[in-house]
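Researcher: I'd like a candidate sequence for this fold, 114 residues long. If you have to choose between options at a position, lean toward the conservative one.
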């Protein structure tokens, strides 16, 4: 059994004019844990979300989503990016990846541990 934590994420290029509202999540086979939404993110901003470890047996997904809220014309959140992590020796430890999608670019740092 392995565990995964989200350590931080950093805005490299925001999606929206002004600021992004972003949350991080971890998902295994049955559970999704999401951080609070962090608003007012500009390029260069870094946050340390409160996403506790999530145990998984074979794989889990980590990702970032830009929260569009309920603004009357679009309530679909935008997926910035996801990464599937596995319980294998090469995935154990801390990793930083770049997620690009929906016009945004973020660095996501996560840790896989047993």
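Model: Candidate sequence:
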């Amino acid at each position: 059994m392995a565990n995964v934590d989200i350590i931080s994420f950093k805005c490299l290029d925001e999606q929206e004019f002004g600021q992004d509202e972003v949350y991080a999540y971890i998902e295994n086979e049955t559970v999704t844990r999401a951080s609070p939404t962090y608003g007012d993110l500009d390029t260069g901003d870094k946050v340390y979300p409160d996403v506790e470890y999530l145990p998984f047996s074979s794989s889990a997904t980590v990702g970032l989503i830009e929260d569009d809220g309920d603004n009357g014309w679009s309530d679909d959140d935008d997926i910035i990016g996801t990464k599937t992590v596995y319980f294998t020796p090469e995935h154990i430890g801390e990793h930083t990846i770049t997620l690009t999608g929906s016009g945004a670019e973020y660095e996501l740092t996560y840790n896989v541990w047993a």
